[in-house]
Amino acid sequence: MQAKRGQLVVVSNRLPFAFRREPSGRWRALPGAGGLVTALLPVLRHRGGTWIGWPGASESMPDLSQELAAASEDAGYALRGVALTAEEVRGFYEGFANEVIWPLFHDLQSLCNFDPGYWQAYCTVNRKFAYVVREASSQEDFIWVHDYHLMNVAAELRRLDVASRIGFFLHIPFPPLDIFLKLPWRMQLLEALLEYDLVGLQTVRDRHNFTQCVRALLKDARIEGRGQVLLATHRGRTTRIGAFPISIDYNAFMRQAASAEVAAGARELHALLPKRKLILGIDRLDYTKGIPLRLKAFQNVLERYPELRERISLIQVVVPSREDIAEYRGLKSEIEQLTGKINGSFARPGGWVPVWYAYRSLSRMELLAYYRAADIALITPLKDGMNLVAKEYCACSIEEDCVLILSEFAGAAVQLAKGALLVNPYDIEGVADAIRLAYQMDAAERRARMRRLRRSVREHDVFWWVDAFLRAAITKDLDAFPIAADHHVVEGVDFGLPV
User: Fold this and answer.
1) pLDDT band for position 1 (50/70/90)?
2) Both ends of the chain: CA-CA distance in Å?
3) I need a labelling partner for 419 at 20 to 30 A (CA). Which of 155, 200, 397, 498 fits?
4) Residues 111-138, buried b or exposed e (16+ Cβ, 10 A)?
5) What percent of the chain has pLDDT over 90?
């Protein structure tokens, strides 16, 4: 029996285009960046497909249908927008997604605001997404929903009698049972997730947390299997559950890092900060990134190991984010105060400045130059689903004469443990000792460690991730896992159901 050819329908909170109003008043679509876009575009172009998401404009703004149609023609796949009101964005995105799920799933439940209105807005918006998905897809298509904003979409689609296969990937961590229990809508959310045919998580730990919650809260649910993909049966439906660590386009980062423009940028940084090792931290402004604790650890290493003064500098780049939220404004103020305190205590007039702090976004070339210039990357989130900055740093470290210091609470720590120096970000002295160890590490060990890291990221890149997820979704033989890292097999995947 031949399978009917189906398409891939990608559903995410935002479209892979940012729409900006020009001075003339017209809207222009600017292509988005990032690993997810890079990985899925070849699949969509080859098989045909649709990307569904919010275009970033409220219903009170002009109709963007013409702009979406033009962007679709240029991209080679269809774009469908989900229209949201400003009130829905506040309740669904700013409210439930970022004041409930984001802090809770990052083990920061004290920052949650369990406003019942947020849950109502979340359900309403997920229902809106489901209506657009139903209109834009057929039964033969494979629907791939992304991240914590849209966990209810499959449940809403099932209510609309959509029988297509639907997969879901959570890009952030899934919390342990004792944390998840704090969520007032825990039962509804778990049952909604089990309406998917495949639930993908970043790490085996996340998969364990999810299945533990299913076992504890859904008494009639049954979990089976021992391999990479487990089976959860609940109310007559079977859901596959697997761990698929997301990654980056390794070859693209490596090629661009080797360019003359990036090399010149790296040399310029070393010329501005000569005769010292450069330690790099790059983070979005967010309380999960552990930036204040990182600054305290850097202060501690200067206090306890005075021989490192004037021999190291920390470049801390903070990318603006959610500046309208009070907690984020307070975090920015704390970072600036700590930076001022360290520089005030240790800087030398006309010479050494311990912390070079930048609060701005970086261009792609600037980012790669920072990666390539850094002798040590200091990546210490309190909790992270994966942390692709760590993998990007490895891909760009083409000389391999550098060290990665990584939080053990980043999802990437599982994959990068054999080459990185793993630290507990809450252990200020422990992080300080890791900085000293990285500074003193001999060249042979630095290169050996970085070579292992780069090999791992290269072999398990973002195309491997797409392939792994899609094969887990469509294969009939789950004994086929773990999956070989064939980066091009995705184009041959048939998303259709047998007819």
Assistant:
1) very low
2) 7
3) 200
4) ebeeeeebbebbbbbbbbbbebbbebbe
5) 77
The confidence score (pLDDT) of residue 488 equals 38
The dihedrals phi and psi of 495, each to the nearest 5 degrees, come to: -85, 0
Q: Which CATH superfamily is domain 250-459 in?
A: Glycogen Phosphorylase B; (3.40.50.2000)
Distances (CA, A) of 415 to 243, 378, 411, 431: 12, 17, 8, 20
Tokens of 400: 């391999």
Q: What are phi and psi of 305, to 5 degrees?
A: -125, 75
| pLDDT (average), residues 88-96 | 95
Q: Is the pLDDT of residue 438 over 50?
A: yes
Nearest to 130 by CA among 86, 195, 66: 195
The token duo for 364 is 């792609």
Any idea which residues carry the catalytic annotation? 171, 384
Burial degree of 261 (CB within 10 A; 0-12, 13-18, 19+): exposed
pLDDT tier, 177 (very low <50, low <70, confident <90, very high otherwise): very high
Residue type, 430: G
pLDDT at 4 over 90: no
Q: What is the mean pLDDT of the chain?
A: 90
**Which residues is 3 bridged to in the sheet?**
498
**Could you give the residue range(s) of every CATH 3.40.50.2000 domain in the chain?**
8-247+462-492, 250-459
| Total length of the chain | 499
**pLDDT band per the 50, 70, 90 thresholds, residue 179:** very high
**CATH number of this structure's domain 8-247+462-492, picked from the four choices 3.40.50.2000, 3.90.180.10, 3.40.50.720, 3.30.930.10:** 3.40.50.2000
Position 23 scores a pLDDT of 76
Q: Where residue 60 falls among pLDDT bands split at 50, 70, 90?
A: low
User: Mean pLDDT lowest for which of 171-185, 379-393, 461-475?
Assistant: 461-475
| Structure tokens belonging to residue 377 | 């990357």
